[in-house]
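Methods — Computational structure assignment.
A single polypeptide chain was analysed. Its primary sequence is given first, followed by the predicted tertiary structure written as structure tokens.
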Amino acid sequence: MAKPTTDNRQPTIIIMKVTIDGQEIEVAPGTTILQAARMIGGESVPPAMCYYSKLKGTGGKCRCCLVDVTKGSEADPRPMPKLVASCVTGCQDGMEVASKSSDRVKEARKAVTEFLLINHPLDCPVCDQAGECDLQNLSFEHGKLQQRFVEEKRTFEPEDIGPYIQLHMNCCIVCQRCVEVADQLTDKRVHGVLNRGDHSQISTCISTAIDNEFSGNMIDVCPMGALTDKTFRFKSRVWFNKPFNAHRDCDKCCGKTTVWMFGNEIQRVTARKDEYHEVEDFICNTCRFDKKEVSDWVIEGPRQFEKDSVINQNKKYNTTEKVVIETEKGILMGREVDRKKISMADIDYNEKIDGNPINTKK
């Protein structure tokens, strides 16, 4: 039998040093490159469409977060020959990583973005997710104006999955966040990924309605407009709403939410999200769908968003400076010949859209 030890020394805490785009940071063992980059912040943080820090087992599916490991570690300084997914690659002591500073990474992210947009419809002008869409942000930064895909886009038949959630499978990139959130928050998941390869889709298999108290969180974790709120469908654009932090006493969840108001009307309720658009605390369907009266909530104050978000526009309580997004010419503003046709401010009162005077017969 071993004798009891009388050693009162504290256990040794192992700290690893990692350098990302020239910025060094100390992390604990088990930290991934993406987590270390988020600790640093700024432009070095890789984009992520499938990884979700609040959900276990996510990551490694979308390949948006690829980085270049130029030095493996102090023990083995050889660089990794291929780009790696930062969300599932652990840090090593002495590791050096190139994210924004690598041309290989930039080209890879452009290729991944082009691949994700192959089957994605151009529904941004009518999509409820526009203005808070991660895929939209990804395409602005890493998208290409030209498209090489000439084949017919993959489409799916509409499917009704319940009274609260609208499934638009044509927009889905199969990141599987909604599957993980149902797996880890509920005990009766009825949907999942069916089929394989290009035919993969999110479905309930036997057309079963998704009905559980936390199913609405699928909407919050979806990075694009594949899953949207039916109670908010086509009501307003998000930049016309004013978001406020609010809370209420709830016996099912934390009750801390963001309410989106148009005048004195609450048009939708969502969970609060951090700077990486990840939910801080999951909320129940009662708070999300049933409590739409101002009297149901204690309004705390305006919700702040990142400075380049369009949600900040048209807000009297928040002044924003002009933001310049570095992307290919034509992606944001369109073609010069089309700009006058869609800008009513540039059209004279006595002039038709086609450029001819209003009193002519042309």
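Note: The chain has two domains: 16-114, 134-312.
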